[in-house]
Structure formats: C-alpha cells, structure tokens
Amino acid sequence: MLKTLRAKLTAALLVFVVLSLISTVAIYISANRVEHAVRVVNISGKERMLTQKMSKDADDIMIYKSGSKRDSANQANITVEETSNAAVEGMKLVSDLTKAAGNIKETSNKTAKIIDEIAFQAN
Questions:
Q1: How far is the C-alpha of 32 from the C-alpha of 101, rounded, in Å?
Q2: pLDDT (tens digit, 9 = 90+) per residue, 31-67?
Q3: SS3 for 1?
Q4: What is the Cα–Cα distance from 100 to 43, expressed in whole angstroms?
Q5: 72: Cα within 13 Å, side-chain hemisphere
Q6: Contact indicator for 112, 28 with CB cutoff of 8 Å
Q7: Which residues contact 53 (CB under 8 A, 6 or more apart)?
Q8: DSSP character at residue 123
Q9: pLDDT bracket for residue 122 (50, 70, 90)
Q10: Alpha-carbon span 64 to 76, nearest angstrom
Q11: Res 67: pLDDT
C-alpha cells in the first residue's frame, strides 16, 4: 500500500511539474508575442512619421524650385538628408524585427520539443 501511495504522489508531483513548465512556457511565448506586437506598433509609428517628414520635405523642395524661398535651400537639403537617414534606420528596424520573429519561432519550436520530451518521459 505504501508503494501505491508513493507512486501516486510521484505521479501527482510529476504532473504538477509538467503543468508548471507548460504554463511557464505559455507565459514566455505570450510575453514574446506582446513584445513583437509592441515592436510592430513602434515601427508603424516611425514609418508614419517618416512618411509625413518626406511629404514635408517634398513640399520644401517644390517651394525652393519655384523660387519663392531660395534661402531655404540649405534647410531643404538638411531635411532630405535627415529623411534619408531615418529611412535607413527604419529599414534596420524592420530587419531587426524580422530577426526577432525568427528567434521567437525558433525558441517556440525548441520549447515545444522539450514539452513533448517531458510528456513522453512522464508516460
């Protein structure tokens, strides 16, 4: 009878540990997804600001070409350069986001394999 009780307690403890691991992994995956969503929203905001800046820069260039504000040529050139730098930064952010998504997927796959191995060993 003692062996049966010990086996039941061991099985219950093993189930508790497996469920704890599964919930920890689920929380980790959810946190990574939220972080990914935050990055996407951040990049979208930067893209919107970049688009607005490019539109303003185009207006400044048109004003300069029309001759009404020739003294703003240097400012227009600076603004175009800043816009170009912001576009490069945006491309880097998108690249980083793509890498992060790949890392999240890889980690998720590894975690799923670990859970499967634990479940297999528990049976």
A1: 9
A2: 777 777 777 778 878 888 888 888 888 777 777 666 6
A3: coil
A4: 13
A5: 16
A6: no
A7: 79, 82, 83, 86
A8: -
A9: low
A10: 8
A11: 61
